[in-house]
Amino acid sequence: MKKKAQEEMVGFVLIMLVVAVVFLVFLGIYLRQATNAEPTSSAEISQFLEAAFEITTECGTPFPRKLRDVILMCDTGIANCPLTGEDPCVILKETMENVIKSSWVFAENSPTKGYVLDITRETTTGPVSVLNEPIFGGEISCRQYRSAAKPLPDGITMKLEICL
Amino acid sequence: MAFMLVAVMIFFAMVALVYFSISTANLRETAEQLREEEAQELASQLSGTPELAFTASSDCSACIDFDKAFALSQNPNHGKKLWNLDFLMIERIYPDPVEKTCLIPSDLPDCKNIRIINLPEGRGLSGTKTAFVSLARWDASLAGGSGDYKYEFGKIHTLAKNP
Question: Cβ contact (<8 Å) for B4 and A8?
Answer without folding.
Answer: yes
